[in-house]
Design a protein that fits this description.
The complex is a heterodimer. By secondary structure, chain A is an alpha/beta fold. Chain A is built from seven helices and 14 strands. In chain B, strand 5 and strand 6 form a beta hairpin. Classes of the chains: A alpha/beta, B alpha+beta.
């Protein structure tokens, strides 16, 4: 081989190495930039949820739809994550399905007012989840009216009618059963048997707008299995049970709600004690003494979230509201 | 020096200048990126501070209410006294809400009174600190008398 030919070949090898180095350099750059931009989008979604959570303490009875494409929000007990970005909270009150995806998400807030306002409850869901309301009692009608219009919801008077419905490609479907039937033994509507088990859930609701019992179900093949029972207190926590599709998330949020109620009750207890000790009128003193008993009961009942405590809490709240009315009647400073 | 050697040195020089320019570009980009990150961190600290101030303003532990109807921008003095005790006893719980901040309430009219501390938790080596002053009505439910006060919320962010 001539000297000239070796020189040309060496030049080509050199160009090849340099070209490959430049190509690798820019490929690495693009890949890094892509992952950075993805993380940044996830961080924006997480930030937007965080600001909703923080604003939830300020806004009451608000419903809004946020148009963020593919939010992919995972909701757990005291935890939210967007992709691989998690955010842990100590006492998070956020009711929602395990996964929120689609073209955005709907959020709603309501106040927890039993017996006085102690916190706001925040709910998140996706417009691509179908909610099927079954039953025609007063509570079913009330919930159909109260649930936001942005939701994909349908109303049927009996479970038999639901068996015929078609699958409209929602990624999750939740049946809200107000009808007095047992789901065990009834089959899952045929259109949804091919969906993943955790994406087809049902909630059996028995009670009124003040309190009631809940049973959480999930599809297993073509039949229903019970995940456990719980209780709700006032409409705000009933909303929570509708949005949270697992018993674990619902109970976790209710425990946090009760923990907050306990702290607010501690404040009302001290305040009522001060009122009793400083107001001289005997009729007022009597009212405050009665109220202190009720508030003390609320303190005990709110220390743990369980169905029997829910029932007692409702009756104690009624007794306390009677004392509050009495205070108003005798022109004493109100208890709450 | 042979022609081929000169060509190789020429190519190396071109590559060196090319990478030098890329490196300069990178340094420039990194500096702009860093300054943007600093601005965003500052803005996010400011937003967080406002969020904490809002949370304090709407704490049911402090807000005036009558028959469960909330009165905005009003602090119940009896609740304030009770909340001081409750918040101190449950500092870890309130840290999740109020993070690194100091919350004080003081009466300024008709007579000025020393500030009452509600919550205090300081951050070590904090980066930004913001103080928000919120004028509030202070209500004594026993006498139904109102006075003017200031809620001071100082937040520290790392």
């Amino acid at each position: 081989m001539s000297k000239k030919a070796i020189e040309i070949q060496f030049n080509w090898i050199f160009v090849l190495i340099a070209g490959t180095a430049i190509l690798i350099f820019f490929t690495v750059l693009v890949v890094k930039q892509k992952s950075l931009s993805e993380s940044s989008t996830k961080a924006v979604v997480l930030k937007s949820i965080e600001s909703i959570i923080s604003g939830a303490s300020v806004t009451i009875d608000t419903t809004k739809i946020e148009n963020i494409p593919n939010p992919n929000i995972e909701i757990g007990c005291n935890k939210i994550s967007v992709g691989n970005l998690p955010k842990q909270h100590q006492n998070l009150i956020l009711f929602g399905p395990r996964l929120v995806k689609g073209n955005g998400f709907i959020w709603q807030t309501t106040a927890f007012n039993t017996p006085y306002r102690s916190t706001n409850l925040l709910y998140i869901t996706s417009p691509q989840i179908k909610y099927v309301i079954i039953g025609n009692n007063d509570l079913a009608k009330d919930m159909n009216k109260s649930l936001p219009s942005y939701l994909d919801k349908e109303n049927y008077s009996s479970y038999q009618d639901v068996l015929q419905i078609k699958n409209s490609n929602n990624y999750k479907i939740r049946f809200l059963v107000f009808e007095n039937i047992g789901l065990i033994g009834n089959s899952v509507p045929a259109a949804f048997t091919k969906m993943r088990d955790e994406d087809v859930t049902a909630l059996k609701i028995e009670g009124n707008t003040e309190k009631g019992t809940l049973e959480f179900y999930q599809k297993k093949g073509s039949s229903w299995i019970s995940l456990g029972t719980s209780a709700y207190i006032e409409k705000s926590s009933l909303f929570g049970s509708i949005y949270a599709d697992t018993l674990e998330v619902y109970d976790c949020n209710m425990r946090n709600t009760f923990a907050r109620l306990k702290l607010v009750t501690d404040v009302y207890y001290e305040r009522t004690k001060k009122l009793r000790d400083t107001i001289q009128r005997q009729e007022c003193k009597q009212i405050y003494n009665n109220a202190l008993n009720q508030i003390n009961n609320i303190k005990i009942l709110s220390s743990d979230f369980k169905p029997e405590n829910v029932n007692n809490l409702v009756s104690t709240a009624i007794l306390l509201s009677v004392q509050n009315k009495e205070a108003q009647k005798f022109s004493c400073p109100l208890i709450y | 020096m042979k022609k081929a050697q000169i060509q190789i040195y020429e190519t190396i020089a071109v590559l060196f200048i090319f990478f030098l320019l890329v490196a300069i570009g990178f340094i420039f980009y990194a500096r702009i990126f860093k300054s943007n990150v600093d601005i965003e961190t500052y803005e996010s600290s400011q937003k967080r501070s406002i969020a904490i101030a809002q949370r304090v303003m709407f704490l049911p532990e402090l807000q005036c209410s009558e028959d469960n109807i909330i009165k905005d921008n009003c602090i119940d003095l009896l609740k304030l006294e009770a909340a001081q005790k409750v918040m101190k006893q449950n500092e870890i719980y309130y840290y999740d809400l109020l993070e690194y901040s100091t919350v004080n309430a003081s009466q300024i009219y008709p007579n000025s009174q020393p500030a009452q501390n509600l919550y205090s938790r300081s951050a070590q080596n904090f980066k930004n600190s913001f103080t928000t002053f919120i004028p509030m009505l202070l209500l004594d439910p026993r006498t139904k008398s109102n006075s003017f006060g200031i809620l001071t919320i100082k937040t520290e962010t790392k």
